[in-house]
């Protein structure tokens, strides 16, 4: 990989990501006003959220890379990555560059989820799994907020939404290109032959950079 491109990758090893409790419950199937939680259920949830906070080690990486070609079928980036997706191209219609980003919460929490389920504590395992998923998303949210604050000084902003490989018409195989561009092995991450991220609670996403325009 070209040295100038490598230098654009920024890493964060201690992201202060705080998962949203309501989203944790929603992922578990809780519906406000419908699902009734007993006192012991609430106590278990709070204990697992606290434990998940200790086990999750949110880290991330991002790079800002120019778009050199774009049409209705997809985009081509300055590092020769081609992302063929009509939906992504539509999202990036006003963007001149993209942010490639990724977050992970590390291996410890996934090991704990497996251990809890193996020991017959399925409820605790599922809650921890939800906490880990929401923490990984929260780490991306933290990076997006940080980037927006940086970009606003340049009269720019991120697209309202972000897009991930495996979503819509953007094939999961593109995780390989982004994984390599961000050199995610530096965050102790890996990619399977089927393009799944390891640790499991890791996320790759794409957001566009566009001009903020007149207020």
Automatic annotation (TrEMBL):
InterPro entries per record: VitB12-dep_Met_synth_activ_sf
GO-annotated molecular function: methionine synthase activity
Annotated protein name in UniProt: Vitamin B12 dependent methionine synthase, activation domain
Organism: Ruminiclostridium hungatei
